[in-house]
Design goal:
This protein starts with a helix and ends in a 9-residue tail after the last helix. With 175 residues, it is α+β, with helices and mostly antiparallel strands. Strand 3 and strand 4 form a beta hairpin. It contains 4 helices and 8 strands.
């Protein structure tokens, strides 16, 4: 399963392509991954603009204009692939080549950037342990995110907070 640093790397890779882009078409190629897709999944996203792409713990959050927040989890084997329009070329070079087996391409986002460039963002997940769900309202109230602790890469994690969390505990820190 990808850990937090890998998920942050995925977010940073998708951010230039998705933030500010319009989702021209969204294709869910099966009815479910780990969980069923939300009702009218594709219809609720198509034609909308992605206003922000975030991360909360190991979850990616795609904020959609006038709509819900899409919560994405990579599961054990999920990955996103970005292809430029026309030639199917993947921009950049990769140490580990991403899967291009179309049999495992479960969600395809056709996006237009603010500059009018067309790209495809493809979610590939051979094991189908990943998922995509909508958070209606504030994402932090969604059951997948509500019980999470402090964000380890955020400014809220500091010495006084750690001291308060560890106050009165006698067990070794590693435990």
């Amino acid at each position: 399963m990808p850990e937090l640093p890998e998920v942050e790397t995925v977010r940073r890779g998708l951010q230039p392509v998705l933030e500010g882009a319009r989702l021209v078409n969204v294709e869910a190629r099966r009815p479910d991954l780990r969980f069923p897709f939300p009702e009218r999944f594709s219809e609720r996203l198509a034609g909308k603009t992605v206003t922000a792409l975030g991360r909360r713990a190991k979850y990616l959050t795609m904020h959609i204009e006038n709509g819900p927040v899409l919560i994405c989890h990579l599961g054990m084997s999920g990955s996103f692939r970005v292809e430029t329009a026309g030639n199917g070329r993947i921009p950049g070079s990769f140490h580990h080549e991403r899967s291009k087996s179309e049999a495992h391409d479960h969600v395809v986002f056709d996006v237009d950037s603010p500059k009018g460039e067309r790209s495809r963002v493809i979610f590939n997940d051979p094991r189908r342990f990943g998922f995509m769900l909508f958070a209606e309202g504030a994402p932090d109230t969604h059951p997948m995110l509500a019980g999470l602790g402090i964000e380890p890469t955020g400014n809220g994690l500091d010495g006084p907070l750690l001291a308060s969390l560890l106050e009165g505990r006698r067990s070794p820190l590693k435990a």
